[in-house]
Structures are given as C-alpha cells and as structure tokens.
C-alpha cells in the first residue's frame, strides 16, 4: 500500500499559480507611544483580520505589546505587500482613533497613529511553527 498523500496547508493554488507566501509584519505606533491596551489589541486584530479578508489574505497570527503589533500573513502573489500594509495601517488607525478617541489622544496627536515605517520579512526560511511560537510569546500589556 502506498502512503497517503497529505496536502500542505501552507501551499495554496490559484488559477495559474501554486504558492506559499508568508510575511511577518511589524507596525510601531507613532513615537513608540504605549497606546495599546488589551481591549485595543483585540479590536486591532479584528480590524486587521477584516482588511486581510478583503485582500484575500489570511491573517495567521496576531499579537502585540503596548507600542507595536506583529502579524503573520499568508498572501497570494496578486497582492502587493505595500498596498496591504497601507490598508492595514490606514483602516486600523481610522477605526482605533474613532473608537478609542479619548484614550488615544492622551498618547498621540496630529492625526497620526502608526509610525510611517514598518518591518516586513519573508518567512520562507523559518518554519511557520517557529514564527507562530515567537509571535504567540510576545507579551500583551498589563
């Protein structure tokens, strides 16, 4: 009897493509101000999950601390990572400022929420399980 073939969940197929594209993204708040609470991080994850779904991107992992967030995304080749990042940061900033205005204004001013820069790393070399474990171990604020 031949061994049963198990599909790899990290490999996806499109009409003319087979892919396994993962990126580790890190966004830092403006001036590294510690604006996030646990409730805000949970809401940020929800917002970013919705943005990812709009791009047909899977948000595999999310975590953060008081001044930054980590995301692990699985995205198709048709998605420009820079456009995804701009949307993630823009939409989340808009909603978080609207929903937590009084709290956010204590830490941030001038209409900014995120730093203008971000980290994006491809995750082809490290096993996804290792990166997931790293992101899971990031502590949330007290």
Short structural description:
This protein has helices at 38-54, 81-99, 101-107, 128-136; strands spanning 12-13, 18-19, 22-29, 58-65, 68-74, 114-122. It has 142 residues and is α+β, with helices and mostly antiparallel strands.
Describe the structure.
The protein is an alpha+beta fold and 142 residues long. It has a single domain (18-136), classed as Alpha-Beta Plaits, CATH 3.30.70. The chain is 37% helix and 25% strand. It has helices at residues 38-54, 81-99, 101-107, 128-136; strands spanning 12-13, 18-19, 22-29, 58-65, 68-74, 114-122. The strands form two sheets. It has a four-stranded antiparallel β-sheet, with helices on both faces. Strand 4 (58-65) and strand 5 form a beta hairpin. Helix 1 crosses helix 2 (81-99) and helix 2 packs across helix 3. The protein is globular and about 55 Å long. The relative contact order is 0.24. The mean pLDDT is 91. Residues 18-138 form the Transposase IS200-like domain. InterPro entries: Transposase_17, Transposase_17_sf.
């Amino acid at each position: 009897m031949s061994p049963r073939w198990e599909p790899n969940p990290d490999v996806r197929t499109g009409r003319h493509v087979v892919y396994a594209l993962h990126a580790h993204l890190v966004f830092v708040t403006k001036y590294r101000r510690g604006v996030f609470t646990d409730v805000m991080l949970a809401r940020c994850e929800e917002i970013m999950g919705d943005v990812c779904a709009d791009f047909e991107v899977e948000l595999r992992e999310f975590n953060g601390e008081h001044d930054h967030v980590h995301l692990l995304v699985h995205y198709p080749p048709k998605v420009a990572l820079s456009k995804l990042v701009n949307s993630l940061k823009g939409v989340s900033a808009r909603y978080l400022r609207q929903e937590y205005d009084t709290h956010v204004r204590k830490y941030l001013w001038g209409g900014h929420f995120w730093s203008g820069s971000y980290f994006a790393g491809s995750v082809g070399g490290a096993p996804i399980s290792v990166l997931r474990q790293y992101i899971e171990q990031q502590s949330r604020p007290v």
